[in-house]
Amino acid sequence: MQEPTWLAFSERVNFDDSLHAGCEAATLPLGDLQQGALRERNISVLSTLAAFTERRAEPSDNDNPLTQEVARLDSKLNVLMAMFDQWLSRDANLPPRAALRFNAIGAVLPNELWPASMATGLLRLHFDGCLALPLELPARLVQECDGNHVFVAFENLDETTGDAIERLVFRHHRRKVAERRQSLI
């Protein structure tokens, strides 16, 4: 019989890619203050990722000077944010990249990422373009998937964070599909 959490995970679209990822042991559930601070940081990271990955419509032939100025400011701000992220991540000790799949339910991780003796932990995911600000997700070990991977379920995710993760996963999936289609043309 399969675990219901695994079935729910399997039925959803997944973020399937290689990310800088690491785990550390954590006792769950987290305290209210820890959980609140973690929620705020995760919402901030997910909002930042949404802003960076948002695709803007092609520039129109709008001669409105205000529209053109906003576009120039947006471009400058994107460059500054990329420089700031590069500066922050320069001294950061990033974990190695690992191929993984995740959505708002949980994640499939390589065995070496989730130590065998750990029942619960904190999964940290570092996204390109936002390397210095990891997404931190409390998780519990659910099952082995095969000899090389385990499935962990996220614990205590509030609805707002879960929805933001689902939007991130959907945007990533949509971008991957578009890239595949483009390569076929």
Task: Offer a few descriptive terms.
globular; 28% strand; Thrombin, subunit H; 6 strands; alpha+beta; 4 helices; 6-stranded antiparallel beta barrel; 185 residues
Account of the 3D structure:
44% of the residues lie in helices and 28% in strands. It has one domain: Beta Barrel (Thrombin, subunit H), CATH 2.40.10.430. The chain is an alpha+beta fold and 185 residues long. Strand 2 and strand 3 form a beta hairpin. The mean pLDDT is 87. The protein has four helices and six strands; from the N terminus they run H-E-H-H-E-E-E-E-E-H. Strands 1-2-3-6-5-4 form a six-stranded antiparallel beta barrel, surrounded by four helices.
Helix content: 40-55%
Series of H and E elements = HEHHEEEEEH
The CATH class label is Mainly Beta
Largest sheet: 6 strands, antiparallel, barrel
Shape: globular
Structural class computed from helices and strand pairing: alpha+beta
Mean pLDDT: 87
State the total count of DSSP E strands.
Answer: 6
